[in-house]
Specification:
Blueprint: H1 14-56, H2 61-66, H3 72-81, H4 88-100, H5 114-149, H6 154-168, H7 171-185, H8 210-217, H9 220-257, H10 260-267, H11 272-280, H12 285-301, H13 304-309, H14 315-324, H15 328-356
Length: about 350
């Protein structure tokens, strides 16, 4: 009796699924690698721009260190010690290596390493700009939606006037008027500075954000004092972001409200509130991410005037003092940080695109 060998049938159920999972994993790995490479090349371009800006501006970094009365021998010795006697490509490679290791040089203005100064001043700007963008989003998006849904009404006209004021009113004028009315006259808010001077130095720095650090240490009085000082400059910044966000939201909503699917929803008797906020608003969330992200980045790097008026110890004030003192290490370090913030926010916007819009996945 002969037994015929059994022939095994191929598993036609699991192989296609395994192949699909493999292709999906390969596609995800490719996207991650491409994402990292894009960030690396963008950051390298940012380093190149900041480096060559530091070499073409009419400011001699050697003179800012030794002074204009130094002898030629002292000048040349300092120039050699700073590596400025080497060819530009070698200087650029050395600059990239220093930045990657966190070495931005020493600030002439403060006498401390620039990286320490930036870690001290950037959280103050982050704190003010974050509250400003929250105000801008919380008020600007609903204002834009309401203006679009009531196009041509007096509500629409008022919101458009507010947006026009946000584009035309100078920041320094609005800041000074705010100080004169709400601080000097009404005493509703705190004055210039991040905190009252008798509270200065009482909160141990943990994150650098004073509101968070005061809560961590349990100093409620310092927390409310910091809020009292923060609310006016953040509101001024929030007003400018509000104008931009409201205008763009109104424009996006008007385009969606004229689409056929919105008309169909209205014909079917869908309540107007659902038509506006569910049917018309959902498609504009993705472009709004770009608007909000750019506005947030603009607040982080464009708060120089507000920080100067309110004596806010942020990166804008630090950059202004560095420029006045010809402190190129501090200028380039602050510029690099601001550029890195733009890169991170843009990439975060790309990630949020994929979360909110399945078509972009």
């Amino acid at each position: 009796m002969t037994v015929e060998p059994q022939t095994s049938l191929p598993d036609t159920g699991s192989t296609p699924k395994a192949g699909a999972r493999g292709r999906a994993l390969q596609r995800q790995l490719t996207e991650i690698v491409w994402f990292v490479v894009t960030i690396a090349f963008t950051f390298l371009g940012l380093l190149a721009i900041t480096f060559f800006i530091g070499r073409v501006v009419p400011i001699d970094p050697v003179l800012s260190v030794v002074g204009d009365r130094a002898t030629p021998a002292v000048y040349e010795a300092a120039r050699t010690a700073m590596g400025l006697d080497r060819p530009l490509p070698i200087q650029f490679i050395s600059y990239v290596g220093d930045v990657l290791t966190g070495n931005f040089g020493k600030s002439v203005s403060t006498g401390r390493p620039v990286i320490e100064d930036l870690s001290r001043v950037f959280p103050a700007t982050l704190e003010m700009a974050t509250l400003g963008i929250l105000i801008g989003v919380a008020l600007g998006v609903p204002m834009g939606v309401v203006a679009a849904s009531r196009q041509g009404s007096w509500v629409d006209q008022v919101i458009r006037v507010i947006g026009l004021l946000g584009y035309s009113v100078p920041a320094f004028w609005l800041g000074l008027v705010g100080l004169a009315i709400f601080y000097a006259r009404l005493r509703w808010v705190g004055g210039p500075g991040r905190i009252d001077i008798y509270f200065d130095g009482l909160v141990p720095p943990v994150t650098g954000v004073l509101l968070i650090d005061s809560l961590i240490s349990g100093d409620i009085d310092i927390f409310w004092n910091a809020v009292n000082h923060l609310i006016l400059p953040a509101a001024v910044l929030g007003f400018f972001s509000l104008a931009y966000i409201a205008r763009m939201t109104r424009s996006f909503m008007l385009d969606q409200l004229n689409q056929e699917y919105v008309t169909t929803a209205r014909v079917k008797g869908v309540p107007e509130r659902l038509v506006v906020w569910r049917h018309a608003f959902n498609p504009i969330r993705v472009p709004l991410i770009t608007v909000i992200g750019l506005s947030y980045a603009g607040l982080l790097e464009g708060s120089v005037m507000i920080e100067t008026i309110f004596s806010w110890p942020g990166i804008g004030n630090y950059l202004t003092v560095a420029l006045l003192n010809a402190d190129m290490n501090a200028v380039l370090g602050a510029t690099l940080v601001i550029g890195a913030v733009f890169i991170c926010i843009n990439k975060l916007s790309d990630v949020l695109y994929r979360v909110l819009d399945p078509r972009a996945r």
